[in-house]
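Suppose you are handed a protein chain with no further information: no name, no annotation, nothing but its sequence. What can you learn? This example shows the usual starting point.
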Amino acid sequence: MMKMLSWNCRGATKMEFQRRIMDLKRQHSPSIMLILETKLAGTAAREAVAKCGFSCYNVVDSEGRAGGLWLLWNDEDVCIDVVTSTYQAIHAIVKVRSHPILSKFHWFLSGVYGRPQFYIRLQLWNELREVAKHFSGPWLVIGDFNDVVDQTEKFGGAPINQYRVQAYTDCMSDCNLMDIGYSGGKFTWVNMRENNQIIRERIDRAWANPDWRLQFPNAILSHLPRISSDHNPLLLQFDSPQYKTRNKPFRLEKFWLEHPQFQDLISPIWSNPSFCTAHCIKNTQSSIQVWSRETFDNIFEKKRELNARLAGIHRALSLKPSAFLTTLERDLTWEYERILKLEEDLWFMKSRTNWMVDGDRNSKFFHLSIIRHRSHNRIHCLRVSSDEWINDQGAITNLIKDHFKILFSSSLLCSYHDSFSNLGVSSMAFGELSMLDAIPNDMEIHDALFGLKSFKAPGPDGLHPGFFQKLWESVKIPFALILETSSLLLLFRLSGMSA
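A reasonable first move is to predict its three-dimensional structure. Written in structure tokens, the prediction is:
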């Protein structure tokens, strides 16, 4: 697994620096390391960087006791070509050598150290804008930016300067960069003062453009413990650990509903009078899963096949006209358009996006939405105390299980009837109570169902409201029956309680 470390060491002349660097190397085995604010220049800087144990490096000297950047890498893992460097950034092209997939790509890396003086940091923002103008492709920007993006990223001290924040965020927006997130403690810098004067901020981070996020969808940035500096090191893992996946629950996909075969597949199941609603749902799930595997599993393979066939037809037609090939080209083009629509619906459904312009096949946008959604939902580590985190997946699983076992286990016994009777709430009139007890009629069921958003989170059966809305004529009788049965059961229970 390829890794990169970024750390503002606040001076590479300290005795603790060398020990901490070697400790980070032993623990995490990074292929690339960015060290900031080294406060070293000339021969002293080259001698210190040579002791860090990397085969290659690029050094930006400090200006007196201010700044200093080192980019270090192992040549056997990555090939890095430094394009340019300034006193606030090192810009380089990176290519992974020994990875079955990543070795096919290269990407742009900017390691930055934003100076504490705002007027100097403005030069860095303009420098990044220039990079964005002249480089197209995957781009990662990582380091110490010496600013936050909003008030939530600062604890203690004076309120944030909105003008500085606006300049920072405008630069990231102009460069089309997004925060890749983090795991671990929130803040990356502390002023090391007493409790009543303490200030914490998240000023070290990583930004990436959409192309980089798509190339590294599972990348994780972790805030490591702060030792020998007032900054936390950042650990970037380009491939997230492979977690054991459980059997995924059934989930309805929107594009299934648009398929011409779908209604014919579902209608016989729900029109069978021998099936209760539970059987209808179960048979629907199993039938759809079999049908989907046969129909959609090769959607991307079909697209590649159609591309290849169309390319072959175009080559043949360029040599000699053919009525047969022209007709075949038209049919395959129609089929390709249908596949694109299915692919668009697939990404749209998975991205949880609530809007789209019909006909806009921006699959890249939806794919990026999925990456961000999955990254946000994935639990990489949990805090078990104020200063202790766990990142082992087995330990995280057990911790969550134990928490909810305790939460939902109670020896306290109480009577709901006694509890509510002591609240002093006035009772409802008989007519109002009878309305609550009434079995819903067909129109009420229809209006309630069609008042729901079609493709929001489904229930445990995996069927969105859109399924029942789309196939209402086929499912309305068993659907209404289960609601009536539930209402009768509720009435029975209420009568038992009142007795």
